[in-house]
Amino acid sequence: MKLFIDTANIDEIKEINEWGVICGVTTNPSLIAKEGRDFKEVVEEITSIVDGPISAEVISLDKDGMLKEARELVKIHPNIVIKIPMTKEGLKAVSVLSKEGIKTNVTLVFSPNQALLAARAGASYVSPFVGRLDDISNEGMRIIEDIIQVFNVHNIDTEIIAASIRHPIHALDAAKAGAHIATIPYKVFIQMLSHPLTDSGIDKFLKDWNVLQSK
Ligand code: E4P
Fold first, then answer.
1. 105 lines ligand 1 (CB under 6 A)
2. How far is the CA of 202 from the centre of ligand 1 (A)?
3. How far apart are CA 17 and CA 63, in angstroms?
4. In the chain, where are the structural domains located?
5. What are the positions of the active site (predicted)?
6. Which of 15, 42, 167, 191 gets the highest tally of CB atoms within 10 A of its CB?
7. Interface confidence (ipTM) of the complex
8. pLDDT for position 215
9. What is the pLDDT of residues 74-104, one digit of tens each?
10. 88-99 helix and 63-73 helix, angle to the nearest 10 degrees
């Protein structure tokens, strides 16, 4: 499973990118708004840090508006992937963009049927939201498993991005299920990295080393 970071915060992206573990970034309008900066400026800066797919989301709700935004966004950098909501108009836009060779990430996917429609419309990626399904007492990870099964049975090459990842168990379960990608917030990367036995192990090694030096 490949790892993307789910943030528009430049410091977070730089830090995790230095670890060498991510190969893409996803943003959404809420994440961009949190940064309080110009949308295109932020996206452009992200493309200068991470050399991989960078999802930038359209705001329009109609096909023509989405297409206009998408065609502007792709001018920023060849790695831009247009994030489009899972609606009728969204599917129409995805269908046109895929014929133009523009990559799309269909977002706000909450069922396997939505994922199938997005894939058939030509989406490069689908983003099922695990955490938001858990929030309403649905088993988010089950949706990921079902989409993987459907795509495997029918040889669909649209990549599945496990999104709305809220904690390390989500990341682990998505990896075990076989999601192609998980897009993970900074906080969860830190949680995945941390282990108390690693910290106490380093303390002990250093203590023992210092005993040797004082002899
Ligand atoms: C995915 O691309 C979204 O940006 C994101 O994963 C949503 O996560 P949330 O449900 O924690 O806001």
1. no
2. 34
3. 34
4. 2-213
5. 83 (schiff-base intermediate with substrate)
6. 42
7. 0.97
8. 83
9. 999 999 999 999 999 999 999 999 999 999 9
10. 40
